[in-house]
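INFO batch 0412 | record 1 of 1 | parsing
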Amino acid sequence: MPRVYLADDDVEVRRALRFALEQSLGLVVTGEAAHAHGLPALVEAAQADVVLIDWDLPGRVDAWLIADVRRLPNQPRVIITSSHADVREAALATGAIGFADKSEPPESLLEVVRGCLAQ
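INFO prediction complete | emitting tokens
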């Protein structure tokens, strides 16, 4: 069963994501963070297969952070989330494998996660 790590500074968003991923897709959320500081180490300790990172997460969300996460031993897939659809291109340019617009219905995010797991 794939393991997911959630990185978003809004506790309510993390709670909703956890519920949707666990209930709808049967995934296991192995950890959460509210800041980008130390995120690669946290993801590694959680042995996550997929990491959802909010584009506006406090700290450094850029190509370096995404590369650090993707270079971990189990090479987790990274999905960037944002409520600003206009950052999609920039987010994907960081090396993320997917982008989910948080202003879309939850089913859209679940579809992005399903697609990334299938790759």
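INFO post-check: The domain at 3-118 is CATH 3.40.50.2300 (Rossmann fold).
INFO record closed
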